[in-house]
Amino acid sequence: MENRQRLTRQESRAQTRERLIEAARHMFAQDGYGGASVDTIAAAAGYSKGAFYGNFDSKEAIFLEVLERHMAAEAAQLSRLVDAGRTVGDILDSVDAWLDSMNADADWALLAMELQLQARRSPGFAVQHDALYARHRQRLGGLITRLFSMSGKRLPVPAEELAAAMMALAHGLVLQRTQYVDGSDPAGPLIKTVLRSLLAAGSPL
User: Fold this and answer.
1) Each residue of 1-49: pLDDT tens digit?
2) Which residues share a beta bridge with 153?
3) Could you tell me where the DSSP H helices lie in the chain?
4) Which of 66, 106, 171, 201 is buried deepest, with most CB atoms within 10 A?
């Protein structure tokens, strides 16, 4: 009985944490990093501020958790596309389709840029933020390396540098979305063009 009660407490804590993370994801997307607060996140999840601080040290900490999950899901989606493709052409077609919808939620790219500014203001936050982005670049760089290797082509620059350039392109172009009458996102088509051009021009292994 004691073990079951302990497990129930663990399950309850995990549920509280998940609800706080989901509420934070929604509030950050709706109000931005600066507009969301610990109070509004806790209230949106149906908990007190005490419950928030029982799971997270700060607003920065829960945002990093939300961002890490978003990045991990993005990398996992791309990894599945690479794993599922029988040929390079199959993989590129799948990646093209994914890129067409990559910024369907433009708030995420805007939030990522907002957090870069926060990292410049807060040295302590910058350490965790930069480590998070380094892991994401490494994951994406590994996928890019696999794609070039399957194509029998050499990478023109280190894979992580290419991943960083594509991330910057995606984030930067979101800011220009309002200039397009139909509200379309130019990042996906441009990244597709860059990636396919680099593969076509690459020297053989």
Assistant:
1) 444 455 687 888 899 999 999 999 889 878 888 889 999 999 999 999 9
2) 204
3) 2-35, 38-45, 49-53, 59-84, 88-100, 106-121, 123-151, 159-174, 187-201
4) 66
